[in-house]
Design goal:
Layout (H helix, E strand, L loop, with lengths): L2 H4 L3 E5 L6 H12 L2 E4 H9 L3 H24 L5 E4 L8 H10 E7 L2 H8 L13 H16 L4 E4 L4 H11 L5
Parallel strand pairs: 1-3, 1-4, 2-3, 4-5
Helix pairs in contact: 3-4, 6-7
Amino acid sequence: MFLIPLNKKNLTFCGMMGSGKSIIASKIAKIIDFKHIDTDKLIEEKMKKSISKIFKKEGEVRFREIEEIIISKILYKKNCVISLGGGSLLSKKIRNIIKKNSFNIYLNVNINELTKRLTSSRNRPLIKNINLKQKLMELIENRKSFYNQADLIIKNENKLSETINKLRKELKIDE
């Protein structure tokens, strides 16, 4: 397995909302027979409420605290493919644990494609009732330096199968 020589325990996928982290992580997990963990879903399960409700009732700062606590524990597991929330890399603690334990993959998607993918999204609190493209540009600007520190950067703007095939090749799966 490609992670062993790198001394890594798991794979993480980072990137903006709408970049395809959850679906791609899920598919890769099946291919390599690892468990898939979607951190946003995990947070909702543990908190027994949606991320939108957490943002609305407790605010983004409290959400980021909760996110850091939950994700920090998950990152110590082994043989997992973890899809991270778009803003989780804002936490230095999370970034440090990822650097130590995970092979991190940034799914890079251009602003126009992200805007197209997210136009009809109703359950993302950071892009509710605002100029979508402008907000996405602001979020990307704040996060890109963290995303660009990933071990692997993959463009995910075409078909899902193309991205999966690129990942199989880069990660030397099936060799």
